[in-house]
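seq:
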Amino acid sequence: MPEFADRTLTCADCGAQFVFTAGEQQFYYDKNFKNEPKRCKACKSKRSHAHGGRGQPGSQKVETSAVCSQCGKPTTVPFKPTQGRPVFCRECFQQRRSAAASGGLSRPVE
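struct:
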């Protein structure tokens, strides 16, 4: 296993220098990451927030109004529902997940 020492890198966005610590290098090595970081923590954070926190341009959380397929209550879901697939409110979703985990449901009921 290689020995790691702190290294100074230059941010690709702002040009500031930042330290790529020995601990971070060990983490990259353990995870088999091939590329070292290109951005300082501030630019990396700024970039992440600008991309909706997921690293994808323009990805914003979607809140869609829907009616629960099980109990009929109005609810909101954090995705755009697909036609023909049931949508559940938080309570019904949790009940179904608990039932599935305990072996009560082998496949969601539609």
